[in-house]
Amino acid sequence: NAPTDRLAPPSSARALQALDSAHFLHPFTDHQALAAKGARVITHAEGIWIWDADGHRILDGMSGLWCVNAGYGRRELADAAHRQMLTLPFYNTFFQTTTEPPVRLAARLSELAPPVDGRRFTHVFFTSSGSEANDTNVRLVRRYWDLMGQPQRKVIISRWNAYHGSTVAAASLGGMRAMHEQGDLPIPGIEHIQQPYYWDLRESGETPEAFGVRAARWLEEKILEIGPEKVAAFIAEPVQGAGGVIIPPATYWPEIQRIVDRYGILLISDEVICAFGRLGHWFAYEKFGIKPDLVTFAKAVTSGYVPLGGVLVNERVAQVLCAGGEFTHGYTYSGHPVACAVALANLELMEREALPQRVREDTAPYLAQRFAALADHPLVGVAETCGMVAGLILVRDKATLGRFPEEWAVGMTCRAHCFDTGVVMRAVGDRMIIAPPLIMTRADIDTMIDLIWRALDATLADLQRQGRW
Ligand code: PMP
């Protein structure tokens, strides 16, 4: 936690916190609780490190919010934005006009995304976020089935504890009950099945493989309950991110694919977190052998430097859509030239540094090995990874994976200790999760694991002090 020479004076940080409390509504935040302690002011960042206004250097184990895959301080991304802003900061693409960056980016993404069953992802619809991209998906799949002469196919099936965004449609697709409770969600036409979370939903003696098949069959049961002729699509994250890095057993996705094929329903792979090298491939569907019709992306397409999202559309859908007249949908910033220019520079950088390959062949296997060893800590029940995402379960009893009472909020305590120790981890209930920048070296991974271990020690010491251990 070395202080730096770029410290904001403490008085100005305090002033900023006061202004923050007075005016800034934060996402997913209890504002009274935040005001009581003041938001941590992050001032600058470089590589895998962020600095706060009190001079703490913190290893960013979450890549911002699962997005800064190329790390901080990449000058060429700033240069790409600067150049494009001076050349053409904005022009719309609504009225028979186009601009160069989104055209080139759509073509590039179409090239990067491997075909499924010989069918290419020929087209891209751009948005500014993952939420808007999933809203687009809701409209797009219903439009597709209308054009196919099956307008009764409206229902989209998703999963509990999935996260697909915060707009009304995206929050409805998501399976976060706390979100549904605010504002009468989900909207009609969206159904949920249980998630493939082995550690919570397995039956006694059930193997992960058997559980994976059983969990996938919940989709088939739901399709039959609704009536296959009414089901438009199934949407899922290859690995659930915000839900707590829920990694499905290897048998899950092949069985899901068999089911969507059998009933002819569209498959949407929400890769807002999982794409762009996160799991060791440009797209996660490659890793799992999934054959999606639509792929949602956002976040790391620009390494988070500017907002951009979108939907990759397979030719099965694109041909119908493009031949079907006007699709009455679009955003002012669909294909924003600056965002697309930054994305092009980011993809070039990732390709030059072979980040997906480096993750696949070197850093992810190393992380898997180092992270698994965290299970030796007295507080850790399970420690698992998939590419460069990882999650561990804090437990009271290692043998039975018995959990702590929810009201003890042990995850939140651990998260606070992580910050104090100098590493960002996120807490989802009793799961502690990471998604570090893909530029990490093995030495960086060692540093991160050491910091996590120390934060776990501090959490354990707290529990002991409170007589809870
Ligand atoms: N889908 C997934 C899988 C996500 O993880 C997120 C964001 N965490 C979203 C969609 C929503 O993206 P955004 O926050 O850019 O709207």
Automatic annotation (TrEMBL):
GO cellular component: cytosol
Entry-linked Pfam families: Aminotran_3 (PF00202)
GO molecular function ontology, one term from the record: transaminase activity
Cofactor(s) in the UniProt record: pyridoxal 5'-phosphate
SUPFAM superfamilies linked: PLP-dependent transferases
EC assignment: 2.6.1.-
Root EC class: transferase
This protein's UniProt keywords: Aminotransferase, Pyridoxal phosphate, Transferase
InterPro entries, per the entry: Aminotrans_3, Aminotrans_3_PPA_site, PyrdxlP-dep_Trfase, PyrdxlP-dep_Trfase_major, PyrdxlP-dep_Trfase_small
Family: Belongs to the class-III pyridoxal-phosphate-dependent aminotransferase family.
NCBIfam families associated with the record: PRK07480.1 (NF005682)
This protein's name: Putative aminotransferase
Species whose genome carries this gene: Tepidimonas taiwanensis
